[in-house]
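Risk register update: the risk of archive-format incompatibility is retired. Evidence:
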Amino acid sequence: MRRWPRFAALLVVLGLLAAACGDDDDGGAAGEAEAPSDEAEESEVTATPAEDEVCTEERQGGELTMGVQLMAIGLDPTVALGTGVAGATEITAIYDTLMRYNPDTGEIDPHVAESLEPNDDFTQWTLTLPEGITFGSGDPLTAEAVQFSVDRLKNATVAASGMAQEVESMEVVDDLTLVFNLRQPWGGFPYLLASEGGMVTNPAVVEAMGENFANNPVGAGVGPYEVERYAPQEEIVLAAKDDYWGGPVCIDTLRFLPNPAGQTAYESFQTGELDVVFMSEPQPVSEAMEAGVNNYRAISGGQGYLLNGGRSDNAVLADERLRQAIAHAVDPEVINERVYDGTALPASGLTHPDQRIYPDMDGPEYDPDLATELVEEVKAEGEWDGTVRVTCPDTPTAIEQAVTLEGMLEAVGFEVTVENIPSDQSNQRILFEGDYDIGCGAASIFDEGPVRGMNQFHTESVRNRVGFGTPELDTGIESLYQAADIDEMRTAMGEIQEAFNEAVPAVNVTSNLWFIGWQDNVHGLTMNRESSVMFHDAYIE
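Archived output:
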């Protein structure tokens, strides 16, 4: 199989950690958050465990508890938000993925699939499945099941739905062969099958469970685990299969607990309540790194505020001048100091300078004088009274972030109302209902699949979170789809950033360092796209 495309790894290949960040022999981290070079030397600790560090029959047994930042809102690939920060780890354990992004090599390789081959112009891809793989129910994995799953995803509103819509049609050649015909050339198509598009759901179970499928998809996946208990916002408990296609599954039980506040999660990890922890808040991540916690980490660009410019008839920020005013009123450096004690990665652009796809272009400059002029200009027209709502989660960091933003906006003439509500309610309001003016959120732009974060800003996307788009932004996003290598992706991100700075569908203030830490007795974790974890080779010593 031709491995296409070779997307450069983020941080795993940046070399060994500084001594303060742990001993590599103990399963240390990826690398320093610095600009990687194309010739970067691979770390001794990789995102793929060595052959002698994987599950064997002699290592079977035990229970593992992981703290997650945003628990999966449903155990269905068409419902879960689907990144390492929001459900991807849990649902991958149930469904597996046809392809897998390997952060060590930057390549997207077959996992469940046997092969995935493109035609010459990347408008058609042929998937071949191996024989003998079955769902938890015992039904065989077939090309028709893949077609069914991708069709379901195309009609959903999660991040991967916008990507799935690029599939114009599918042809079932035989039980194990499926041809994808794309709407336009897409060099990065394998990424779709490494994300929710590659999580195949059993059509029979989906039909039998109906509306309850997302709560109890037993028998629906080909992954190493089956659902034992799903209690939303309380816990997810998964039990190991004894007939997993990939070999023995060592850890008997996986338990996922919600830990929306990073500091709370780290404290639970320190006391041993958590075996594995996901964190993205800069302060606890910095503490964990200084303490030498075994870890993997990667940069996610585009953290800040979504601006609702059209998801309701009376969208306050439908006026482009007000969105530009907000962008010019916000100083990422001040937010970094006041909210994160200087531990964050301040960035006004969609990507961070340390990312490979960074186009050497940032977001709008901090200019409070210009912001004041724009606000006064709109107020003078008499159709807007100056008020705007800020909606954010009720975590300590998000509260401080909202307060800091409130001060910056009021300094240039806005009248601000702040709403801090539980994370699940905040996500519902901002991502699904569109009931917000300014919402804490993130585009989450990763080197391996930037189309995932960017397609929400395309005019025709089913998951357009801000309610508008522009021809220039649409063109840039379409260029990103067509990019066949890292250089073309970087060029496309430059087009997008230029259009983004004019239309301002969001204001970016930081990039996130997504961090996965684990205890010394945990081995064999496999890292996947967007800092999600795979447990099929994991074991507890």
